[in-house]
Task: inverse folding
């Protein structure tokens, strides 16, 4: 089975993020209705993103999780991922405990170190962000196993600190977003699940193979349920319409990514250093009718042995088109994904 998720960017309703209060209120209302609809359509869950300073409208995505949890029953909910360098570690763990209870044990924990152009706005270097991220991950992993923790590090020193409430799940699933082999191996060593995107499918296969190899070395073999691909998906009743929409969306997507110093028009190999580059592969946009989209998703997941698929479905222009795409995805794509078999 391939579990279908929404990866929700939740961008600003206007370019540049300068929306009026009325536009903002309407934007939230419409999306809240859309996300509630996801449960009836058969989605496994929603992963929200965290962005700041106008790049997104969910700078505190845990608030969205708490709201959606109250109006749904089965959707799993998480952030892919919480930008750890912006937080105190005990606050992260405390909110995880609260949210796991508020969701009734439906929480997924996703973490990330952040994107350079946002960190630069608050004079946080990539090097420091990576250090802080690694240290908070260490504290987080300790706290999920033990109610009282002690830690000695560069940024935090903690003595016999009791963190409550404890999560309902023991513990909630942990995810790490990566674009490199090195980061995938780190995630495998700590037993975190893995999500990646952007790259061509052969590059993702290499990243996942490295993750599986490292996981085996550390005594916890990884299978399809530990791996996720995130892709942009455009589905429509008419193939020509979907492909044309994807062509325009791809161009705009790459233009937006030029603000990220990690982005390259050409494939980027792993290299030592504080950050890793990425390019957008030809497989990043999946477009077509419902059956065509399902076939493409299944083919990619089977190629790399992946049991989770995260769809970014915000590229369709106009609310009516976007809602229609969600309905079509629920009717024609999700049932086929859930029937598909993926070899370990």
Result:
């Amino acid at each position: 089975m391939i579990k279908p998720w929404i990866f929700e960017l939740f961008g600003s309703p206007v370019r540049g993020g300068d929306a009026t209060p009325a536009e903002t209120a309407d934007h939230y209302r419409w999306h809240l209705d859309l996300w509630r609809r996801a449960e009836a359509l058969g989605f496994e869950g929603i992963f929200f993103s965290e962005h700041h300073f106008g790049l997104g409208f969910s700078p505190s995505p845990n608030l969205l999780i708490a709201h959606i949890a109250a109006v749904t029953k089965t959707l799993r909910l998480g952030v892919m991922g919480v930008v750890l360098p912006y937080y105190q570690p005990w606050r992260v763990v405390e909110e995880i405990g609260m949210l796991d209870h508020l969701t009734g044990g439906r929480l997924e924990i996703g973490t990330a170190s952040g994107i350079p152009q946002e960190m630069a706005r608050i004079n946080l270097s990539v090097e420091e962000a990576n250090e802080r991220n690694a240290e908070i991950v260490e504290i987080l992993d300790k706290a999920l196993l033990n109610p009282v923790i002690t830690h000695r590090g560069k940024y935090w020193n903690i003595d016999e600190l009791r963190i409550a409430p404890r999560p309902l799940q023991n513990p909630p699933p942990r995810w790490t977003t990566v674009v490199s082999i090195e980061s995938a191996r780190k995630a495998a060593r700590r037993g975190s699940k893995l999500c990646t995107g952007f790259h061509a499918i052969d590059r993702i296969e290499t990243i996942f193979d490295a993750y599986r190899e490292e996981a085996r070395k550390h005594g916890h073999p990884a299978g399809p349920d530990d791996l996720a691909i995130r892709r942009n998906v455009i589905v429509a009743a008419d193939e020509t319409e979907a492909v044309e929409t994807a062509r325009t969306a791809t161009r705009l997507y790459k233009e937006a990514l030029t603000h990220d110093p990690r982005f390259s028009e050409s494939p980027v190999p792993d290299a030592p250093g504080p950050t890793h580059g990425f390019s957008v592969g030809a497989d990043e946009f999946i477009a077509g009718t419902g059956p065509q989209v399902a076939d493409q998703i299944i083919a990619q997941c089977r190629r790399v042995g992946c049991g989770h698929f995260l769809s970014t479905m915000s590229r369709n222009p106009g609310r009516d088109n976007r809602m229609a795409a969600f309905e079509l995805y629920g009717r024609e794509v999700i049932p086929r994904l859930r029937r598909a078999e993926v070899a370990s």
